[in-house]
Amino acid sequence: xxxxEMEAAAGRPREGLALAEKAQALAASSSIYIRYALGxxxxxxxxxxxxxxxxxxxxxKRLEAGIKRLTGWGGARKGTQAFYLVELGDSLLAxxxxxxxxxxxxxxxxxxxxxxxPTHPSLAQVWERVLDLAWRQGRWSDAEDAIHSLLSxxxxxxxxxxxAGTERDRRANAKTVSESGARLLSLLVET
Length: 191
Known about the structure:
- The chain is an all-alpha fold and 191 residues long.
- It has nine helices and no strands.
- The longest helix is centred in the last third of the chain and has 24 residues, at 140-163.
């Protein structure tokens, strides 16, 4: 799978897709865990590759299949489902289906909050997308809500840096604050 991602990143999406399909064939003949968990990951990778090549319908189909695999299998992790929903929202937006993209991102947001709470750094990826889209559409109230949520994430993790017990914890929290703050600043500068 890593080779599939590397091939696609190197500008060789066909080779990446071929490697992912080989991995899919291997997963299909494995245990139920491998079929579902690895199969879902393969669907997610193929969905991203297809989106990057402009095949938005194919991307959406594969991402939806990955989400279905995760939800159909009892061992599904909500955080993983949320990540796949963010990717699906990106593909829907790329295809021009703005309403479904926002709806999908909001489903991802709800899952992320249920797992990690309202100020976890993983939520920044959803709020970034909502902010960018709301700003481009002139929906200032929604953009303002997204900005406040992003600021809350940054503030929460700045506080965590100061309370961290070990040096390792301080470094990890500082990295989170830095990344969240940089994302927010870049969005504000772009908009």
